C-alpha cells in the first residue's frame, strides 16, 4: 500500500480493498508469497488477481473514494456493486485468490514446479479486514511480496475452499458441532497437497478427512485438537503423502465451538454475554472453513476467462447440444458457478420469471453442487441428479425451453453462449 489507511473507528469491523500498483503485462506464475500486516488491527488479508470489467469496477470505486481504497465485503467487489455479495458483474472476469494472511500464517514457497497463474492484464486487489476492537486506530501500510516466474510450471496450483456456512452455534453451548460433507461428483481424481483451517475465537477443534467410497477407511487431511486463533498455519504434505480424492469419494469438514460463558471474547475490558452465533466475517461472528491446496498437471489446466464471456469454457459444449436446453448446459463439465449465475439471471429477466421460485427452492442443492463444482470440477447436472433428483427434474423442466427463445438470445450472448 503506497498511502497509509487509518481504519474507520466507527466500525467494529472495517472491510477495505486496495488496488496495488503492480501491473502484469504478461501471464505470470506465482511460486510463493508473503503478506506483511502493517497494523495490530489487521484481522485477515486476502489477495486477489483481478482483470476485465471487474478490475474496472475496482478502479472506479477506488477513484471515487476520498480515502485510500474502497469498501468491500466477501471479496474484491465494491460494496456498492452486487450488494456486497462478493459477486462480479457478468463479464467481469474471474477473481483469483493468490495469497492470504491470518494470525500465525508463515510465508512458505509452493512445492517445487507448482505455481499459480496471474493472467496478463491483471492487477492485484488486497482485501484487508480491520478489527477496530483490537485497539486504537493506527495508519496501516500492509505490504505484499511475491516470488514469480515467467514460464509455465509443471503443475498448476489452486486454492479451493470448503465451508459450512449455515452455522448455528447456540448461546451457552460448550460443545457445538458443525459439519459439512462435499461429494466428488466429477470425473477426474483430485490431488491435495496442503490444508489450511480457519475459525474465529470460539473455535476449539477442527478436523477434515476424505471418506473413501465403498470402503471403511478414510484419509485424514487435518486435525487440530486445540484451536488457537493466533496460530493458523498452512500445512503442506510431503510429496509421497499427497491425498488423492477419487470420483465418488467425499470430504468432510467438522468444526467444534465453545460458546459457554467462560469462553467469550473480551470487549471493553469484559467478556460479552453468550449469544447465538452464525457465519460471518466479523470478529464476533464465526467461520468453519478449510482451504485445500491442489495441484494439476499444466497441460490439463484450462486458462481463466478474460473477456466478457463468463461461459466461454462451456460454449463449445453448449453449441454441440442437440437442443439448446438448460439441461444440456447444466450437464457441461465446464459450466462454472459464475456462468450458471449469469445464465440463470438472464433467463429469469428475459421471460423465465416463473422459474425463479424453483431456483430459490433449489438454493441448498445448488450451493452444495456449486462447492462440488468449485473443488472437484463436477458438472451441476451430474451432481444434482444424485444429490437432489426431484429438484433437478423440477428446475430443468421449467428452464429447458427458455435458452432457445428469441427474446433470451441477448441474455445468453451476454454470458458467452
Tell me about this structure:
- The strands form four sheets. Strands 2, 6, 8, 9, 11, 14, 15 and 19 form an eight-stranded mixed β-sheet that branches. A five-stranded antiparallel β-sheet has the order 4-1-7-3-5. Strands 10-16-12-13 form a four-stranded antiparallel β-sheet, with helices on one face.
- α6 (363-376) crosses α7 (380-387) and α7 packs across α8.
- β17 and β18 form a beta hairpin.
- The protein starts with 12 loop residues before the first strand and ends with a helix.
- It has three domains: 13-151, Jelly Rolls, CATH 2.60.120.310; 158-299, Jelly Rolls, CATH 2.60.120; 312-414, no CATH class.
- With 417 residues, the chain is of the alpha+beta class.
- The model is unreliable at 81-93 (pLDDT under 50).
- 21% of the residues lie in helices and 30% in strands.
- It is built from nine helices and 19 strands.
Summarize the structure.
The protein has 417 residues and is of the alpha+beta class. The protein has 3 domains: 13-151, Copper type II, ascorbate-dependent monooxygenase, N-terminal domain (Jelly Rolls, Sandwich); 158-299, Sandwich (Jelly Rolls), CATH 2.60.120; 312-414, no CATH class. The chain is built from 9 helices and 19 strands.
How big a fraction of the residues is strand? 25-35%
State the end-to-end CA separation: 39 Å
Tell me the domain tally.
Answer: 3
Largest sheet: 8 strands, mixed
**Per CATH, what is the topology of the largest domain?**
Jelly Rolls
How many β-strands, per DSSP?
19
- Find the structural class using helix and strand composition: alpha+beta
Name the CATH class of the largest domain.
Answer: Mainly Beta
Order of helices and strands: EEEHEEEEEEEEEEEEEEEEHHHHHHHH
Name the poorly predicted regions: 81-93
Q: How much is the average pLDDT?
A: 87
CATH architectural group of the largest domain = Sandwich
**Helical segment tally?**
9
Sum up the overall morphology in one term: globular
Q: In which range does the helix fraction lie? A: 10-25%
Question: From the alpha-carbon coordinates, what is the Rg to the nearest angstrom?
Answer: 22 Å
Amino acid at each position: 500500500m503506497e498511502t497509509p489507511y487509518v481504519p474507520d473507528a466507527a466500525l467494529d469491523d472495517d472491510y477495505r480493498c486496495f488496488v496495488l500498483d503492480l501491473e502484469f503485462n504478461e501471464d505470470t506464475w506465482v511460486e510463493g508469497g508473503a503478506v506483511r500486516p502493517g497494523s495490530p488491527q489487521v484481522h485477515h488479508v486476502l489477495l486477489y488477481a483481478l482483470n476485465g470489467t471487474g478490475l474496472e469496477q475496482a478502479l472506479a470505486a477506488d477513484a471515487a473514494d476520498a480515502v485510500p481504497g474502497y469498501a468491500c465485503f466477501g471479496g474484491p467487489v465494491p460494496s456498492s456493486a452486487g450488494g456486497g455479495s462478493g459477486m462480479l458483474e457478468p463479464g467481469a472476469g474471474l477473481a483469483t485468490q493468490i495469497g492470504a494472511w491470518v494470525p500465525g500464517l508463515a510465508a512458505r514457497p509452493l512445492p517445487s514446479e507448482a505455481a499459480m497463474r496471474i493472467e496478463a492484464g491483471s492487477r492485484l486487489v488486497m482485501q484487508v479486514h480491520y478489527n477496530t476492537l483490537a485497539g486504537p486506530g493506527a495508519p496501516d501500510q500492509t505490504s505484499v511480496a511475491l516470488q514469480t516466474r515467467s514460464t509455465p510450471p509443471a503443475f498448476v496450483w489452486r486454492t479451493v475452499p470448503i465451508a459450512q456456512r449455515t452455522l448455528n452455534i447456540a448461546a451457552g453451548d460448550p460443545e457445538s458441532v458443525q459439519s459439512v460433507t462435499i461429494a466428488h461428483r466429477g470425473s477426474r481424481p483430485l490431488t491435495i497437497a496442503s490444508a489450511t483451517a480457519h475459525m474465529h475465537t470460539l473455535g476449539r477443534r477442527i478436523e477434515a478427512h476424505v471418506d473413501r467410497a465403498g470402503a471403511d477407511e478414510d484419509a485424514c487431511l487435518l486435525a487440530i485438537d486445540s484451536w488457537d486463533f493466533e496460530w493458523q498455519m498452512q500445512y503442506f504434505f510431503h510429496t509421497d503423502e499427497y491425498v488423492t480424492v477419487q470420483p465418488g469419494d467425499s470430504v468432510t469438514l467438522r468444526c467444534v465451538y465453545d460458546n459457554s460463558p467462560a469462553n467469550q471474547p473480551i470487549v471493553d475490558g469484559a467478556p460479552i454475554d453468550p449469544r447465538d452465533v452464525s457465519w460471518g466475517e466479523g470478529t464476533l461472528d464465526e467461520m468453519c472453513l478449510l482451504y485445500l491446496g491442489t495441484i494439476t498437471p499444466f497441460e490439463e489446466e484450462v486458462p481463466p476467462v478474460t473477456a466478457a464471456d463468463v461461459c466461454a469454457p462451456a460454449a463449445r459444449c453448449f453449441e454441440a447440444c442437440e437442443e439448446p436446453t438448460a439441461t444440456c448446459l447444466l450437464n457441461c463439465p465446464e459450466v462454472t458457478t459464475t456462468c450458471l449465475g449469469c445464465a440463470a439471471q438472464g433467463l429469469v429477466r428475459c421471460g423465465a420469471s416463473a422459474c425463479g421460485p424453483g431456483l430459490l427452492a433449489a438454493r441448498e442443492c445448488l450451493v452444495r453442487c456449486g462447492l462440488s463444482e468449485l473443488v472437484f470440477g463436477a458438472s451441476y447436472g451430474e451432481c444434482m441428479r444424485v444429490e437432489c433428483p426431484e429438484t433437478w427434474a423440477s428446475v430443468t423442466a421449467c428452464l429447458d425451453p427458455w435458452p432457445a427463445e428469441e427474446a433470451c438470445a441477448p441474455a445468453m450472448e451476454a454470458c458467452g453462449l
